[in-house]
Every structure is written in structure tokens, then in C-alpha cells.
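Risk register update: the risk that structure generation would not scale has been downgraded. Supporting records follow, first protein first.
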Amino acid sequence: MNDRLQLARLGTLAGTLGGLVEQFWQWWSEELIGLLPPRWQQRLHQRGTVLCIAMDDQQCRVGYGNFNQIETVASAPVGAEDEWPSFVTDPLLTRAPKADKVVLLLPPGRTLRKVIALPAATESGLDNVLRFEMDRHTPFSSDQVYFGYRIVQRDRAHQRLQVELLVVPRDYLDGLLQRLDELGVHPATVSLGGGEDNWSGNGINLLPGSRRRERRRDWRTDRRLQAGLGLVVLALLVGFPLLEQRREIANLTEALEKPRAAAERAAQVRAELQRLEGGGGYLRAQQEKAPAILLTLNELTQLLPDTTWLSRFELSEDRVRMEGESAEASALIALFEKSQTLQNVTFASPITSNPRTQKDRFSLLAERKVAAAGEAPPSASPEATEKTGKTENAEQTETTP
């Protein structure tokens, strides 16, 4: 069902774009041909079929063929006011739709041909100059005739132009064009004929600008238009699914933007939680160390005699440093042999005497014991409550003896 809808859409688009493609092809081809040398332009324009209508006074000849070879298909006398005979009009009616170009050739007796010299500066506005000076070079005014021209020679040394001017009375040409319009024949070129059996004009187009139009080509018979339309349809067949795919990708991308933003916010919250959990882990680790510190302080309170106090107590991961004064400093090492939290107790420095307090100054280093797996830490003794004064001294960071 979707394929049928797409094909129907493509058919509508092809019909709509057909005229646009045809106009573009005509414009594009004419622009490209205009870049070529004049001889090549003439060869390119002289392609396809041509229908020629040559008027020789009261005689009308109809020729049909290509630009290189045109055969006479009808010839008969015609009057200015009389109806044209059917053996002249029938070939016109049958061959005009098939012809790529229709040419009307006028007899020399009905036209005026003249070569005039003009300044080279008039080349850019030659059409207006000739229209303004028509009564100087011809016995007619510009309102009485249709005219055309071509530059025959440019004299650069004297800055002059040789211009071939061709004029035809308006009444005569309008009558012919009106009669051809009634038959549905619309010439693209009106020029001066070359006589009997001569179907080539002199290259000057006398057709009024209001009547100049390109012959509309039928795409059913024009192979170039058929090829162009085929390429357009092929491009649509290939490009339409790609456009649909791009649209779906854009919709999916837009739909994924909201979950992506939510995921980014969730990642930020997760990172914040991890940071907070890290801080909580640090606090838990410090809390786990606190009982061991309290046990060490409690044990020191029990082991040290009343004549000993600490002025400095430093506790690291695996070492303890104690400084203070005691009446029996040398006996402290033996006391620490009973410790359950400290081991390898030694003096960090020699014992000295304090003359003011009459006590020994000491500095001890000890290693902390690592509790074995499954071994319960020693419990606090009830005697610790009786020696709070020593605990308070041990928590001081620095005292003066």
C-alpha cells in the first residue's frame, strides 16, 4: 500500500516537474549554445525538422524537411484577401505540430533591404538608434514597419559599423501572421526569402518581439525530454527513500535527546553518590581506628604509675611515641612488657633529669601490636575510671613541666 502511495506521489511530482524541466532544459541549452562560436551555433540550431512557408508575390510554397534538405510539399497561388486552397493548408495543418521550427520567408518585393553606416558607439543601443532614425534611412516611420538588422562589418580604425537593415510593412506581415494563426501555425522566424527552390533566409528575423516564443515540445515525442524526465524520476526513486530515512533518523535523534539528558543527570547523581560514599568510607575507617586508640590510652592509664605523666603522645599507623616525666623512668620498659597493644618499647633518647621537678625526662618509642584474626581486643579494666587524670594528661599534645 505504501509503495502504491509513493508511486502515485511520484507520478504527480513528475507531471508537475515536467514543465519545469522542459523550461530549464530550453534555458540551459540556449545559454550553453550562446557560449559557442557562431558557426557552431548555426549548426546546432539547424537540427531537427523545419516547416518553411515561402511567399513569392502571389505564390505560396510549403517546404518540409531538415535544415540541410527541404522538399517542396505544396505550391499554389494565393491572393491577399482570398482563402488559401486546401492543398496548401492541409500540409501546414499536418506538419506544423511535428516541426521543430516554422519559418516564414517573405518576397523581396515586400521588404526593404539597406546597408547603412553608423558610429561604433551606437552598437550597444543599436535597436533604439534604428527605431529613432527609421524615417531618415527609409520612407517609413518606425510605427509603420517591423525591422531587423545585423552587423555586417566593424571598422575599428574609423570606429564605424556597417549594418544591414531589413524592414517590412506592418500591415502586410500582420495579415500573414493572422492567417497563419487561424491555421494554428506560429512561425518562430520571419526572414527574407531567397527565391524559388531556395529555403534559406538571410538570417535577419523580422518577427515582432511580442510574437516570439519557443515552440513547446511534447515530452511524448521528444527523446531528450523523455531522458530528462527519466533521470528526474530515477533521482526521485532513489532520493525519496533517503529523505524518508533522514526524517526517521531526525525523529529518533529528537526522541533520544530526552533519555540522553536524563542519563547524563543520572550519571552526575551517581558520581555525587560515589563521592559521598568515599567520604563516608573515610569516616568509617576513622571510626574503626578510634576503639584501638582508646584501648591504647586505657592501657597506658593502667600501666603507668601515679608518679609518671605524659607531656606528648604521638600515634601513627604502626608506631607510638611518648614523652614525659617519671620518678622511675628506667623501670618503664619493664612495665610495658605487660602491654597487650604495644611491643618493642625502647628509649628514643637518653634519660635526663629535670632539676625543678626532681623527675626524669624520658622519650619512648613502641610498635603497635596487630591483633590476630579472630582475637578479641582487650577489654577496658574498671581501674581506668579511677585514673582519668592520667588519661587527660595523655590526650594533651604539648605541656610545660
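Supporting record for the second protein:
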Amino acid sequence: MEEAVRLVIFQDKFLSGCAPSPLNPAVLTKVLIMKQTAVWIAGVALLTACADVKDSDEYQTLLLEKTKLEAQVKEKEGHNREIIHFMTQIEDNLAAIREREMGIRNVKHDSDLGEQDRVTLIVAEIGTYFEENRNIITKLEKQVAAQGSQNAELKKLVAVQKKAITEKENQIRMLLREVESLNTRLATTVTEKNEAITEKEEQLTEVRKVLSNKEKVSARAYFRSGSRKDLVQKGIIARDGGVLGIGKTDKVSTKLNPKNFTPIDIRATSQIPLGDVRKQKIVTTHPGSSYQIVQASNGGSFLKITDPDKFWSISRYLVVVVD
């Protein structure tokens, strides 16, 4: 009888939303069954007062009714225990779903795209609980159908639970749509920011290239060495002054073509080879204190720049006549 009372409490809880009344009709029905059982026991007691009562038809009839009643009570209690188990499981599943729903709402408020994997896991868990509840409702509906109109309260209880499950499923779907919409907006924002960053980086790269080119140009100088005849023919120097070909001096042309020179980086060039020559003469103007002509041990010579800033301060062209 304990399971019957517990089932009635479940029914009152879900159908009325409050504690069961002591005068609940379902409880009174169960009490009536108990009274009927007591009447049967009293009848048996009266019959046993007679000496040959066990051999009487009345006794055998009551004994058969007792056996049937016990079987019905046992079967009913079994159904009640199963129904209570199902209802408890539904409630536990709904509680677990509500807990995981809060997890999704927290992810929504955190606005973190990195939490998408956690949302996927939570949704999978919620789906499992919903599937379990749907299976339980199916089992309960089969029991209701088998009992027909014998248990209208159970039918109402199953309907209430089914509605609660459906409403919670709809709430979860709406919440997931909100999270998906938020993730879409965040993804769009992140994409736009990444595109802006990429554009800025490309602009910076172009600026760096321009600055690098300017640095190279500002650090570029031009060098050419050769015989006097060769340099004159190339239009790099000209012979000027003197009388009757005597006393002429070498003078750098005013229109120099960089293509006739070897470009050098003044930041990385401190020595310029002049070759194995007997004489060398610097035609372009460079402060004498900024360089030296050094004779190499192998017989060659090179120009050693001791003060690059000062050496290239007057001209970025270096022309050397060698012989």
C-alpha cells in the first residue's frame, strides 16, 4: 500500500502544484481497499470459529477471493513502483537539463567563440536526457492505454509531464538559436577585425618597403675606376685647361650616367679594391682625412674609407684614374 500512497502524492504534486490533501479521493479509494481486505479477514475469522469451516464452500470461496485480491494488489503495487520510478527519472532528467541550460546561458553571456565546443558537448548531453524522457513517456502512455479509464489521474499526470518536456525542448531550441545568432555576429566582427588588421599590415609592409628603398637610395654611392683614356671615352671625365696639350687636368663630367658605375652601399663598404696598379688618382672630391690608399701585401692596392659620413659628404660618386 505504500507505493499506492506515494503515487497519489506524485499525482497531487504535478496536477495541483501543492501537497496532497488528506481527503484526496485516490487515497480514500486505497483506504477502501484496505477496509475490504479487513472485512475479508474478519469473515475468515468467523468461519474458522466453526470446527469444519475449512471444508465449507464459503471458506473455499473466500480463500479464492483472497488469493485473487492479493495477486491484484501485488500487480498494482508493481505498476505503482514502476510509475514512481519513471516519474522520478523524468524529474531527475529535467533537473539535469535545467543545470546544463544554465551552462549554455553562461556561454552566451561570456560571448566567447572558444566556448563553442563546450556548447556542443552540453547540447549532446541535453539531447540524451530528452531522448530518455521521451522513451519514458512512451512507456507511461502504453500503461495508460492498457488501463483504459481505470486511472484518469495517471493519464492527466502523463499529459502534464509530456507538456513540460515539450516546453523545455522549445526553450532549449530558442536558447540555442540565440547562441548561434550571437556566435554569427561575433564571427562576423572577428572577421571584419582580422580583415582590418590584414589591411593595416599590408599598408605597413608597403611603408616599410618605401622606407627601405629610400634608405637604400640614401645609402647608395657609385664607383668607377679605369685608365684615363677609358674614363674619357665613357664621358666620365674630361681633360681641361693647359696650353697646347700641356698642363691639362682631369675633371669629372657634369653629366654622369649611373649605368657606367658600380653601385655600392656606403653602410657596408669600407674598402674598395683598386687593382694591381702603379698609380691611382681620385678625381672626385673627398676630404683627404676620410680615407687612405693602402698597398696590399699581394701587390695590389685598395681605398680604405676611415670616415664614411665625411668621405661621402661632398659627392656620392667615386672616380679613380689608375695606371
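The chain has two domains: 2-195, 219-322. On this basis the risk owner (M.S.) recommends closing the item.
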